């Protein structure tokens, strides 16, 4: 019986840079990256082989915040399923926008999971984001990792923090997590 790799789940509001971070951490371009909120509608999965530990990384769609997208409920359902399976959660916040009410909803949901959690402020390559990063400390997560997923700044630090929180010993193999099937997007949009 093979054991699954530890599961790390990226979660956050739409357009905070989860998919860009997923691509950067996996060294792929599997996740579609656009400035259009709600582009990620599916859960993407990729094994990350690091110097310290291997794990499976999941990119979820923007689960928190209002949406007019008719597929939003499916995105939320798939994201919640992924969160319930997580060994480590990486909450991604948009430093450029600063701390907004939807971020508190994410924190509340993730804290209820009682799993190791890492808070990440993305887009710190923008001056406004660097200036607003301090306000995220009020959420009470230590350490708070500042990254620019687009430019790879801070991603190594994030990978180190993930490795510290992974359960068990290094185990080769594919994860056993199988999320519920996705409905195809209407109109041929991005998944």
Largest sheet features = 6 strands, mixed
Instruction: Show unreliable segments.
Output: 36-41, 170-191
Terminal CA distance reads 33 Å
Cα-atom radius of gyration? 16 Å
Give the overall silhouette. Answer: globular
Helix amount: 25-40%
Q: Domains counted in the coordinates: how many?
A: 1
Give the rounded overall mean pLDDT. Answer: 76
What is the CATH superfamily? P-loop containing nucleotide triphosphate hydrolases
Number of helices: 5
Task: Please provide the count of β strands.
Answer: 6
| CATH fold call | Rossmann fold
Structural class, from helix and strand content? alpha/beta
Proportion of residues in extended strands: 15-25%
Please give the CATH class. Answer: Alpha Beta
Q: So, CATH architecture?
A: 3-Layer(aba) Sandwich
Major sheet strand order: 2-3-1-4-5-6
Elements, N to C (H/E): EHEEHEHEHEH
Please characterize this protein's 3D structure.
The chain is α/β, with parallel strands linked by helices. It has a single domain (7-168), classed as Rossmann fold (3-Layer(aba) Sandwich), CATH 3.40.50.300. The protein is built from five helices and six strands. It has helices at residues 18-26, 72-85, 101-113, 127-132, 155-165, and strands at 7-11, 44-49, 54-59, 88-94, 117-122, 144-146. The protein has a six-stranded mixed beta sheet with strand order 2-3-1-4-5-6, with helices on both faces. β4, α3 and β5 (117-122) form a beta-alpha-beta unit. The model is unreliable at 36-41 and 170-191 (pLDDT under 50).
